[in-house]
Write a structure and sequence with these properties.
Distance between the termini: 14 Å
Helix content: 25-40%
Number of helices: 9
Number of domains: 2
Structural class: alpha+beta
Largest sheet: 11 strands, antiparallel
Length: 470
C-alpha cells in the first residue's frame, strides 16, 4: 500500500516537473527572442565599439569592379556606309575598389554621422583577361560628347575641329586611357570615362547612426549637404531614399522593398525580395532590382520624371536606359543594365553582338535579415553614350537615327570572407540556433515527461483501484 502511494506521488511529481520544464521552455521562446532583439539593436548602432561601426568604417571583404568593353569590329563600315555596329565583349579588366576607409567621420548632435567615401582603384592582373595596355576600338568620347553639347548652329565649327584633329566617330585606345583619361587631340584636354577618379571622394554623406531609433540606422539624411537631389526637377525623383546599400536597418522584412541611393546613377532605387539562400552556412534574403526600375513611363508612370529628352527617348517610350545628362554636366551619358537587359528591343537591334541575360546581368543584394548587413552583392551597370545624325558632320552623315551606344559594363561585387562568416555564425547564427534548440528541447522534453508521467499515474491508479475491489 505504501509503495503504491510512493509510486503515484513520484509520478505526480514527475508530471509537475515536466509541466514546469515545458512552461519554462515556452516562456524562454519570447524571452530569448527579446534578449536577441535587444542585443542586435545595441550592436547595430553606428558608434565606436559596436560591430556595426567596425563593419561600416572599412569593409572587411574585398570589393572588385570588373569591366567589360564593347569592341567595335567594323568602325569604318559604320561611318562610311551607315551599317549597324558589330560588337564583341572584351573583359573582364578587374580593379580593387572600396578598400579605403571612410574619411572625415563626424558624429553630430542629431544622431547622424557625416563622412566622405574616398574613391580609388587598383588594377588586378590575375583577375583580368589582359593588361591595361590592351587596345579597344570604342566610341570617340569627345566626338559623341561634343555632338550633344555644341549647338547645331555651330556644328560647322565642330566639323572643322574633327577634321583638323583627324578624329572620327570611333577610336582605338588602351584600356587605361579609356577608363582613366587621355589627352584628346580635338578638345586639347583630358577625357576618360572615370576621369578623375583616384584621390577623389563621393559625398559628404549624412546618415542616421540609429542611436535614437535603430529602425533608421544607416538611412541617408543628406547627400552633399542636401536632403534631396537637384537633377530631375521633380520632388519624387529627387528624393534620397534608403541607405548606401552596404547595410540596412536590422530585422529585415522580406515583404517590403529595400531602398538604397546610388550616386553612380544619381537616384534612389528599390530592391525586391526574390528568395532565401544559404551563404556559407548563414541564411540570407536575396533582393534584386525589378525590371520596372528602368521601365518607360508608359509602363511605370513613376519614372516619368527621369525622361529628360523626348527626342532621343522616342517621346519617353524607350525602356531600359536612364538619361544622366542632368547630373553629368550635360554630357550624353545613359545608364542601363548590361546588354540593355529589360530594355526596348530597338536598343539591342541597333547593333549586333548584345546578349542580355538575367543570370549574368542582373543586380542583387544578399542581406542577413537579423542584422541587416549586406553579406554579398553584385551591382551591375552599363555606361552608354548617345550620338545622332548630322548633315554637317561628315562622320555622322550616314547615321540614320539617334543611337545609344554601349561603351562598357561593370560588375561591382563583394562577398564576406570565411573568417567573417565563421565569426558571424558563432556570434549570431550559432547563438540563435542554440537558443532555439534549448527552447525546443525544454518544451519537448517537458511535455514528454508530463504526458508519460500522467499516463503512468493513470495506469497505476487504475491498477490500485482494481486491487482494492478484488
Amino acid at each position: 500500500m505504501e509503495s503504491c502511494c510512493n509510486a503515484r506521488c513520484g509520478l505526480i511529481a514527475g508530471a509537475v516537473i515536466g509541466a514546469v520544464v515545458a512552461v519554462l521552455g515556452g516562456i524562454l521562446i519570447p524571452v530569448g527572442d527579446i534578449i536577441i532583439e535587444e542585443t542586435v539593436k545595441k550592436e547595430s548602432v553606428i558608434e565606436p565599439g559596436t560591430p556595426a561601426y567596425e563593419n561600416w568604417v572599412s569593409t572587411g571583404a574585398s570589393v572588385y569592379r570588373q569591366i567589360w568593353f564593347f569592341d567595335v569590329q567594323n568602325p569604318q563600315e559604320v561611318v562610311e556606309r551607315g551599317v549597324s555596329p558589330v560588337l564583341v565583349e572584351k573583359g573582364p579588366y578587374t580593379y580593387t575598389v572600396g578598400y579605403l576607409p571612410k574619411a572625415n567621420i563626424t558624429f553630430n548632435a542629431n544622431h547622424t554621422v557625416s563622412f566622405l567615401m574616398p574613391l580609388g582603384a587598383i588594377f588586378v592582373p590575375r583577375m583580368s583577361v589582359g593588361s591595361e595596355n590592351d587596345t579597344i576600338t570604342s566610341l570617340n568620347l569627345a566626338v559623341a560628347g561634343a555632338y550633344t553639347l555644341v549647338p547645331k548652329l555651330l556644328h560647322t565649327i565642330l566639323e572643322t575641329m574633327i577634321r583638323s584633329s583627324n578624329s572620327s566617330l570611333f577610336q582605338r585606345r588602351t584600356v587605361k586611357e579609356l577608363l582613366w583619361g587621355y589627352q584628346d587631340p580635338m578638345l586639347k584636354e583630358v577625357v576618360g570615362l572615370f576621369s578623375p577618379y583616384n584621390g577623389t571622394y563621393d559625398g559628404y554623406y549624412n546618415i542616421h547612426s540609429g542611436k535614437d531609433d535603430v529602425s533608421k540606422v544607416g538611412i541617408i539624411d543628406m547627400w552633399k549637404g542636401s536632403k534631396s537631389l537637384s537633377f530631375w526637377n521633380d520632388a519624387y525623383c529627387d528624393m534620397i531614399n534608403g541607405t548606401t546599400a552596404s547595410s540596412f536597418p536590422p530585422f529585415v522584412d522580406r515583404t517590403k522593398p529595400l531602398y538604397f541611393f546610388s550616386a553612380d546613377i544619381c537616384r534612389s532605387v528599390a530592391a525586391l525580395y526574390e528568395q532565401t539562400m544559404d551563404l556559407k552556412g548563414i541564411p540570407v534574403y536575396r533582393f534584386g532590382l525589378p525590371s520596372s526600375t528602368f521601365a518607360s513611363p508608359a509602363v511605370n508612370p513613376a519614372n516619368h520624371c527621369y525622361c529628360k529628352d523626348v527626342k532621343t527617348t522616342k517621346n519617353c517610350t524607350i525602356a531600359g536606359v536612364l538619361d544622366m545628362s542632368s547630373c553629368q554636366d550635360g554630357n550624353p551619358i545613359y545608364m542601363s543594365l548590361p546588354h540593355f537587359l529589360y530594355g526596348s528591343p530597338s536598343l539591342q537591334e541597333a547593333m549586333r553582338g548584345l546578349r542580355p541575360s538575367e543570370e549574368h546581368h542582373s543586380t542583387f543584394l544578399d542581406v542577413e535579415p537579423m542584422t541587416g548587413f549586406t553579406l554579398r552583392f553584385s551591382k551591375k551597370i552599363q555606361v552608354n553614350m548617345m550620338y545622332g545624325p548630322s548633315k554637317v558632320i561628315t562622320v555622322l552623315k550616314k547615321v540614320k537615327d539617334y543611337t545609344i551606344f554601349p561603351v562598357v559594363w561593370m560588375n561591382e561585387s563583394a562577398e564576406l570572407d570565411d573568417e567573417t562568416a565563421d565569426l558571424l555564425k558563432k556570434e549570431l547564427v550559432g547563438s540563435i540556433q542554440m537558443l532555439d534548440i534549448i527552447q525546443k528541447t525544454m518544451l519537448g522534453c517537458g511535455v514528454a515527461v508530463f504526458v508519460v508521467c500522467l499516463i503512468a499515474y493513470c495506469v497505476v491508479r487504475r491498477k490500485h483501484n482494481r486491487t482494492q475491489i478484488a
